[in-house]
Write a structure and sequence with these properties.
- By secondary structure, this protein is mainly alpha-helical.
- 47% of the residues lie in helices and 8% in strands.
- It has seven helices and three strands; from the N terminus they run ββαβαααααα.
- It has a three-stranded antiparallel beta sheet with strand order 2-1-3.
- Strand 1 and strand 2 form a beta hairpin.
Length: 193
């Protein structure tokens, strides 16, 4: 099953939320005039082709899984483990150091990335929530009163001013902006407190 969660708006009204299949089914074929669909993880609009029948529309959704009977595309690396080969450009001294590490360069790089993710996880989550909420707010609520001040409060991590500044917004826009922003106000070790 897809991990994607989308929300659809027609103007200032939320018309659907859920998996891509649920959202496209709720919109229906031909009923897409004035509809904006957002990826809740990023706040970015989703580019959908909603022409034709509902079956046509569903058939054009992103494919995240291999269907039964289909053969997965063969790729280099260790696909069963989720290993994906990509190019990394480093200076010779970096390659030398990596080559001296137990397990070699790949193991050392994975450990470095895991350590960095652990050290900045909460901070990264706040940043992603701020960016997602701001993208959505700009697209749907950018002309709302207090938008700029609400965006400043969002990036400053000020939950109460953000809530107050969005209170007069249309209910669906306000509620979705607050939903996307909820992790932007989380407190924890990355705050330095």
């Amino acid at each position: 099953m897809s991990d994607l969660h989308w929300t659809a708006f027609r103007g200032e009204n939320r018309i659907a939320g859920g998996s891509p299949v649920e959202v496209v089914t709720a919109i229906g074929a031909g009923g897409h005039d004035g509809v904006l669909v957002f990826d809740d993880a990023t706040g970015k609009p989703v580019d959908l082709d909603l022409r034709g029948t509902l079956e046509d529309c569903l058939g054009r959704l992103p494919k995240n899984e291999v269907k039964p009977g289909e053969q997965p595309e063969r790729r280099p690396g260790r696909p069963k483990l989720g290993v994906v080969p990509r190019e990394v450009t480093l200076l010779p001294r970096h390659w030398e150091w990596l080559g001296e590490q137990p397990g070699g360069a790949s193991v050392a790089l994975r450990k470095l990335v895991d350590a960095a993710r652990a050290a900045t996880g909460a901070q990264d989550g706040r940043r992603r929530a701020q960016e997602a909420a701001d993208r959505f707010m700009r697209a749907v609520g950018g002309d709302q009163p207090g938008y700029e001040d609400a965006a400043r409060a969002l990036y400053a991590g000020q939950a109460e001013p953000f809530k107050m500044l969005t209170e007069s917004w249309p209910k669906d826009v306000r509620d979705h902006a607050r939903y996307l922003a909820k992790d932007a106000f989380a407190t924890g070790p990355a705050d330095g407190k």
